[in-house]
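My convention is simple: the sequence line spells out the residues, with the fold written below as integer tokens. I include a record here:
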Amino acid sequence: MRIAVLTREQIVPVGSPIFADDNRNLSDVNVTTFTDVSDLAAMRTAVSIKEQVPGTTISLYYLGKNIYTLRHIMAVGADEATMIQVDDDLDALTSAQMVTEALQKDKFNLILTGQHGAGGDGTGQAIANFIGLTLITAAVSIEPSFKDGKCIAVRTLGRGRRQKVVFNLPALVMCDRTMGTIKYSSLPEIIRAAKLQVKEFKPMVKRSSSERIKLQMPTPRPKKIFTPDSNLSSSDRIKQILSGGISKRATDRLEGPPKDVAKQLLSLLKREGFL
């Protein structure tokens, strides 16, 4: 079995903000890189399947630029690694196209990625659509079936609910953060990962030049405030303040017994041309 694991570099600011020379982005001393828990769960799940299925190879695809973070993930149990250098502000569609171009060079039985990491923001769904794979989301466990070559995945539906899914290979599975797979790298594995050669993949997909329409809050307009007439007496000014300056409308009021009111209403409707 050939397994591909897709992980992505996450960048977060740390410490007091220090801006770069362009005064637009944060300086390199103000950011740190890490790997999402769901991406690590995908890598550990691949190692678990490798221990159950003899002859399994794990190919790690890393979206980022930090070689040290990549080596840390490789030490979990990757057989080979490929670095796909992408920009930090790259949209999900272009990222999916770049990853698809890299994955289509080799045929994999199973592609694993994180639900909130490399597969987040719709990237995982787009990759599965581009390649034409079965998509399993929010997986908390995966078990290969040795009888018919299928896999069994347990998905989380929230609030403690679970769903068991049987699917055929090839497929793309997005692992949830709650996947209970723990695998610590030993010293020999760290040394082995440090000696492995990392391939670099330069995608041919060009970045889209379309501009996004941004929503902006409207500028607040000053609200007119009613001011009472200073020529009126104090009591009349208070009445104006209480009424908000709204004067009474001049209306004709129909008064009297119901029969007289009905006659007045009919004559009014006839006079105005409604009847």
